Amino acid sequence: MSPRLSRRVYEDFPRPGDAEDVIRMLTELTSSERIQAAVVFRSSGNKRAFWTAYRVAREDWRDALVAGDLGGDGWELFLDSELGVATG
Fold it and tell me: What average pLDDT does the structure give for the chain?
């Protein structure tokens, strides 16, 4: 998981243990930052919504991208605007 997405998870899921659970599940799901971010964006910090978005991503990653606003043209710019510009 990228450092910028990890920061976002800790911001969105501040309850003790929640961010760690989310990060673990996302890491098991895929190594794609785009798909992981789509799940995080769709859940908006709500653990129940996270579970739903996570299940969608497991069934069809394309549906997860659309639901997380990362499925269309310009997704790179949206990702950078939400997480900050990737370094390295």
Answer: 95
